[in-house]
Amino acid sequence: MKPQSITKTQKQIIFFLLKFRFLTVNQLQKYFNHKDPHRIKEWLKDLKDKKYISAIIDSKDITKPYVYCLLSGARSILKEEKSCTKTILNRLYKERKLTKVFRNHCLFILDIYLFFLSQKEKDTKLYFLTPHELTEYDYLPEDLDAYIAVESKDGTKRYFLELFDEYKKSAGISRYAVRKYIKHCEEGSWQANTENSPFPSVLFVQPDERRKKHIFHYSKAKLEKTFENISFFQTTQDAIRFSKGKINIWQKVE
Questions:
Q1: Structural domain includes residue 134
Q2: Which residues contact 124 (CB under 8 A, 6 or more apart)?
Q3: Are 46 and 157 contained in the same domain?
């Protein structure tokens, strides 16, 4: 089936949805830096009418913004890309049926990306890769929410990111993640596959200050028992939600 005609920006939205899976008008407005959401709503309505995307409505709270995701109709556009495997294309049939908890997890990953964009210096390059973009790299830690690289004239800083929320709810999951990254560093898989480049810093986004404090002390105790040079940084979801300006919101575990 031949793809229906869409604009270059609409195609960009489709690939944005492929990357982050879910988004809202407000998030797109921030990404495109549009003061008025009217044009964005027109693009989304057209994509929806052409069965490329779907709008998910919260039936329990109609005041909440629509959440958009891809529909199977987008396959006709995405299949042109070599990176879109059959597995990725087949998941489009199920996107709108995924749980609200997972949907919110993906939406906040996009919020984190927008936060990094807001912090980006003019002379740097930001790479923010989500799970579907990392499938070919089998030496990365499991359950990674994003791999981030920031390139500047002084070099490249690399990060592993994990978000802990209702989707990754328990403190036990956070504690396991601490042990997971230490073990991954000790085993040397990253170093062996990246010409022995430094192990990326690990960024944890915690649901609240209480969890952040708990994992701070837990990770500090674990780091004291390893000889590896590994850095953990933490923040909270609210710190990202309400951040203004270029203020450091990350606390290093040391």
A1: yes
A2: 150, 151, 152
A3: no
Helical H segments across 21-99, by residue range: 25-32, 38-49, 75-78, 86-90
Cβ neighbour number for residue 169 with a 10 Å cutoff: 13
For the stretch 41-94, pLDDT in tens is 999 999 999 999 999 988 777 788 999 999 999 998 898 777 787 888 888 999
Token digits of residue 17: 């949805």
- Angle, alpha carbons 154-158-164 (nearest 5°): 145
Give the structural domain span for 64: 8-98
> What CATH number corresponds to the domain at position 186?
3.40.1350
Q: Cα Rg for the chain, rounded, in angstroms? A: 19
Is 187 a domain residue?
A: yes
pTM of full prediction above 0.90: yes
The bridge status of strand 53-56 relative to strand 67-70 is antiparallel
Single residue among 54, 71, 98 that ends a domain in this structure: 98
Please give the Cα distance from 225 to 220 (Å, whole number). Answer: 9
